[in-house]
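Q: Hi! Curious about what Release factor glutamine methyltransferase looks like structurally. Here's the sequence.
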Amino acid sequence: MTIQDARRRYAAMLRDAGIEGGARDAERILAAVLDVEPGRLRVMDDRDLTQMETARLDAAMQARAAHQPVAQIVGFRDFYAHRFKVTPDTLDPRPETESLIEAALALDWSSVLDMGTGTGAILVSVLAARPGAAGTGSDISSAALAVARENAHRIGVKARFVTSDWYDGLEGRFDLILSNPPYIARAEMAGLSPDVLDWEPHLALTDGADGLTAYRAIAQGARAHLTPGGHVLVEIGHTQGAAVSALFQAQGARTCVIPDLDGRDRVIQASFDG
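A: Let's find out. The predicted structure is below.
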């Protein structure tokens, strides 16, 4: 089987398996097996795949046909300006979360806390773009923290990572607090795609309740962990803007809703006066 044969065969296989965007996913997986960028597949010289490449490719495509996310299969996701390791212990960083990065970099800060850091994609991205700033990433999952540490080290960002359940055990104050917390309500979980529901860590997806538990904890402890005049930026589900804003307003914050590139409510900025 040649490279171009594989492109056609596996695009059809994933399409028949009901994978939305199957041709694109097949190219991402094939490119990862060949260790090239996906765009190179169309212009590189065609050749026969080796036996090892064919075996790896077939196993990977079978996994995708079973709805395992591409990022878990290939082991990485390109997010903002860097490539991040992804495992089944972490959420797959999503393009809409880049709105949180842009909002953070529009603010003045020199110290940042990222709660529920997962892969570390948010923390590492903002620290890489803000040389000299200090950052801490916290997560309740030790497996996720191991991935975050590896990503920070590989990208060349210095950060501190701690095991913590929101503010429990966290010391110090920060100019900026960031979080993309679990915000899917228990009642909404059944409606998720199999790629998410069957493969991503539920602890990072849902609070098992109304989807607002994490925001309550973040809002209630924010003032005690911010420097005077500090800010909180949290990612939200597109219907949660009013509810999450109200939680921070009840703690004395001024709030605004920031949309993503599709125009949907995506980030709440809560600012606390000194």
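A: A fun detail: The chain has a mean pLDDT of 95.
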